[in-house]
Write a structure and sequence with these properties.
Layout lengths: L2 H47 L5 H5 L12 H32 L4 H13 L4 H15 L6 H25 L3 H9 L4 H29 L3 H5 L33 H9 L4 H34 L4
Helix pairs in contact: 1-11, 3-6, 3-8, 3-10, 4-6, 5-6, 6-8, 7-8, 8-11, 10-11
């Protein structure tokens, strides 16, 4: 090899290394901007709302007096809405993802569905609120209820669950499928006994990320008519008489944590701003806890899988 060719190769390698370094620095700076913004906001909420976090804050209803106001109806409403969201979106999303990846024929119709599912993951949440207002509230007559809110947020995270399920299935090595088919397993046995169990860590990560997004959404909940001030709890889902289940809570009025924060931040008194900061701090901690659970589940499930 001639000397000038070696010099050209060294020049190309040097240029690529410089480009890699610049890209790494740009990515690190972008990451630090996001981290610093989060740390700043979290620190401000911690400084302003820490004093308000006590047992009474969790057990009191909202009040016109800031010192007596709490988030009881808000956190209970958030939990019930998230329950409906999980029950409506997770099974349907996983089933749809498995079908599209493993069973659906490869034709223009499947391609069109895949494109629309991917695009729906980026649609603004207010669009889902308007859709739910027309379909669930007026057409189906569910009203401004927990059921409507849960189904709305379920639609919101459904594309995320579908996409994460498909990506988790694609990440499974091909020899898993070939080995299962090689010993005579049917397609259903391959999917149910091998693919879905191996893909569960990735699926769970996508599910928790979607739920973390849903718990902080405000626009679609406001659109369907969530209450900004509520001093009662929905009926209990569990009763002491047979059949021990009560579904009246599904059609009850409700509020959620973001709505309660919005109500408090709209008031000029400083004490209500502290309440909003305390509620925001709790909401962030709930979101971080959900993401921590996702990381822990992924770690535990991956440890139990041997390829």
């Amino acid at each position: 090899m001639k000397a000038n060719e070696l010099d050209q190769i060294r020049s190309v390698i040097k240029t690529n290394k410089r480009a890699d370094l610049i890209f790494a620095l740009a990515g690190f700076l972008a990451l630090m901007v996001g981290v610093m913004a989060f740390v700043t906001l979290f620190g401000e909420m911690l400084a302003n709302g820490w004093e308000r976090i006590n047992p009474d804050f969790f057990s009191n209803f909202p009040s016109r007096r800031a010192a007596n106001a709490g988030i009881l109806s808000a956190w209970v409403g958030s939990l019930l809405v998230m329950l409906v969201t999980a029950l409506s979106a997770i099974p349907l999303g996983i089933a749809a993802g498995v079908y599209l990846e493993e069973y659906a024929p490869k034709n223009w119709m499947t391609d069109l569905i895949e494109i629309n599912v991917t695009n729906l993951a980026g649609v603004p949440s207010i669009v889902y609120g308007l859709l739910a207002l027309g379909v669930f509230v007026y057409t189906f007559g569910f009203g401004q209820s927990i059921l409507t809110a849960g189904l709305t947020l379920g639609l919101l995270i459904l594309p995320v669950v579908i996409v994460s399920t498909r990506e988790a299935l694609r990440a499974i090595p091909i020899h898993i499928r070939e080995g299962a088919y090689g010993v005579g397993a049917t397609q259903w046995q391959v999917v149910s006994d091998h693919l879905v169990p191996y893909a569960t860590p990735g699926i769970m990560t996508g599910v928790i990320i979607g739920m973390s997004r849903a718990i902080g959404e405000t626009a679609p909940i406001i659109t369907i008519g969530a209450l900004t001030f509520i001093a009662f709890l929905p009926p209990s889902p569990i009763t002491d008489t047979a059949p021990f289940l009560n579904f009246e809570w599904l059609f009850s009025g409700f509020t959620v944590m973001p709505i309660q924060m919005f109500n408090w931040t709209s008031r000029p008194e400083e004490a209500f701003q502290q309440n909003a900061a305390a509620a925001g701090l709790i909401l962030v901690l709930m979101t971080l806890m959900m993401n921590a659970i996702a990381i822990w589940l992924r770690y535990r499930l991956r440890k139990s899988i041997s390829w």
